[in-house]
Amino acid sequence: QGQLVESGGGLVQAGGSLVLSCVVSELSFRSYSMGWFRQGPGTEREFVAAISWIGGHVYYGDSVKGRFTISRHNALNTVYLHMSSLKPDDTAVYFCAAQYELKITFESGLTAREYTYWGQGTQVTVSS
Questions:
Q1: Which of 38, 51, 80, 98 could link 32 by a cystine bridge, Cβ 3.0 to 4.6 Å?
Q2: Contact 116, 51 (CB under 8 A)
Q3: Cβ distance 94 to 23 under 8 Å?
Q4: Residue 88 contacts by C-beta under 8 Å, 6 or more apart in sequence?
């Protein structure tokens, strides 16, 4: 069973930055596409960003385009989410997710149901 552990969440003022990390174990990380999702109180899990297992294809949710950047370091089995220009609306629990050889396009890899493995989440709170 794969294990995903997120870290890097916290409290930040609006306009600030955070970097989330997700370390993956017990999976062949290089063969997994990775996604970040978030969920606020009383809301559904929302797609944030995804990066493909091959080719470096990335995709972002409309609400974070131009502010967030997803990247991966295969040698460290880690995926990152660099978040800048944070807004109070970005407040949520952020989850990383993994799926074997998932295509990342405008119609694939953007929904929670496409991912099998999930981390426990890390809280991000943006104060106004």
A1: 98
A2: no
A3: no
A4: 14, 126, 127, 128
The count of other CB atoms within 10 Å of the CB of residue 70 is: 22
Question: Per-residue DSSP letters for 19-34?
Answer: EEEEEEESS-GGGEEE
Percent of the chain whose predicted confidence (pLDDT) is above 90: 95
- 41 pLDDT band, cuts 50/70/90, is confident
Q: What is the mean pLDDT of the chain?
A: 96
Chain position carrying tokens 């089995």: 77
Backbone dihedral region of 47: left (phi > 0), alpha (psi from -120 to 50 degrees) or beta? beta
3-class secondary structure, 63: coil
Distance of alpha carbon 40 from alpha carbon 81, whole angstroms: 17
Q: Where are the beta strands (DSSP E) in the chain?
A: 3-7, 10-13, 18-25, 32-39, 46-51, 58-60, 68-73, 78-83, 92-100, 117-118, 122-127
